[in-house]
Structures are given as structure tokens and as C-alpha cells.
Amino acid sequence: MQLKLLFSRWVQVAGLLLIGGAVxxxxxxxxxxxxxxxxxxxxxxxxxxxxxIVLLLVGSTGIGYYLTIxxxxxxxxxxxxxxxxxxxxxxxxxxxxxxxxFKNSSIWYAEQxxxxxxxxxxxxxxxxxxxxxxxxxxxxx
Length: 141
Known about the structure:
Elements: H1 2-34, H2 43-59, H3 61-67, H4 73-98, H5 110-139
Helix pairs in contact: 1-2, 1-3, 1-5, 2-4, 3-4, 4-5
């Protein structure tokens, strides 16, 4: 019974984790921009990058869970396990989209950080939608 209660709330929890990861990365980008690229792989930027990636990977399991709510248990488990690959795959896609846009940019770190900025926007929206859908589902069940 308690396990079912935990999983009924997982969509909301995962949505909040995605939002938290995106916010961590947004702050990381703010640190990089405010230091004009002086702090990218050390200090606050490095810590926020690690926190953000952990939150995004764990939160992404909510995407797999939500997409397989009315499916069999085996499919749900597979989707939950493979959903973090969605996060990594999205970075490859974001890089392919943003690299040509910032190839000759005067801001030397723009090409490197643009995929992260795109991820911030996408995962904030997905996290909000997951949180909202989970809240709606638990209110009316």
C-alpha cells in the first residue's frame, strides 16, 4: 500500500527534481556569465553542474513512469531505467542544433554552454508539466 502511494506521487517528485536540476544549471550559467567564463570547471559552476545532472537523471525517470502509466509493469520498468538515456541523448541533439549557431561567436564559451541553456528551458517546462499532471492525477483519484 505504501509503495503504491510513493509511486502515485513519483510523477510530482520527479517533476520537482527536473525543475531543481534545471534551476541548478541556470545558476551555473549565471556564474559562468558573471565571471565571463573564468569559472567553468571549478568552484560553484562545477558543483552546480554535478547537482544539476544528478537531479535531471533521477527526475527523468518520471518521464518514463508517466509515459507508461497505463502499460504493463515490465514496460514501465524498462522505460524508467532507460529514461536517463533521454537526458544524455537530448544533449547530443542540443549540441547539433546550437553548435552551428555559435561557431563564430565572440563569447568563447557560448558554443560549449548553449546546449545547457537549451536543456534548462526544456527541462523546466517538462518538470512543470510533470508536476502539474501528477498533482491533477492525485487530486482526482
